[in-house]
Design goal:
globular; four-stranded antiparallel beta sheet
C-alpha cells in the first residue's frame, strides 16, 4: 500500500486547510493510522491517530482545532485543520508506523 498526501499550502494565521491521504490499496484493516508532522529541526510528532477500536488521539497542541477522519470505502484519510497557527508549520505525513507505511508528505506553511 502506498500513501499519497495532498492539500498542503500556504495559509495565514487563523486560516484552514484540509489534508487528504489517498491509499493505493485497502486500508480498512490497518490500525493505528493517522497523521504526523515534522517541522525543521524538530522530531516527527503525532498529530492525530485512530486505534482499531475507533478511539481518536490528538496532540494537545491541535486538540479542538484539528479533526481527523478516515473513509475506508475510499481508502482515504483526512485532516481538517482550522485556526491554524504559525507553529503548525511543518511537513505533514499520513502513516501507519506499525506497518511501516508512510507517505512523502505535504507541506503546510502558516504565515503571520
Amino acid at each position: 500500500v502506498q500513501l499519497v498526501e495532498s492539500g498542503g499550502g500556504l495559509v495565514q494565521t487563523g486560516g484552514s486547510l484540509r489534508l487528504s491521504c489517498e491509499a493505493s490499496g485497502d486500508i480498512s484493516t490497518i490500525y493505528p493510522m493517522g497523521w504526523y508532522r515534522q517541522a525543521p529541526g524538530k522530531d516527527r510528532e503525532m498529530v492525530a491517530t485512530m486505534s482499531r477500536g475507533g478511539a481518536m488521539y490528538y496532540a494537545a497542541s491541535v486538540r479542538g482545532r484539528f479533526t481527523f477522519s478516515r473513509d475506508n470505502a475510499r481508502n482515504a484519510l483526512y485532516l481538517q485543520m482550522n485556526s491554524l497557527k504559525t507553529e503548525d508549520t511543518a511537513m505533514y505525513f499520513c502513516a501507519a508506523p506499525s506497518m511501516g507505511l508512510g507517505g512523502q508528505g505535504t507541506q503546510v506553511t502558516v504565515s503571520s
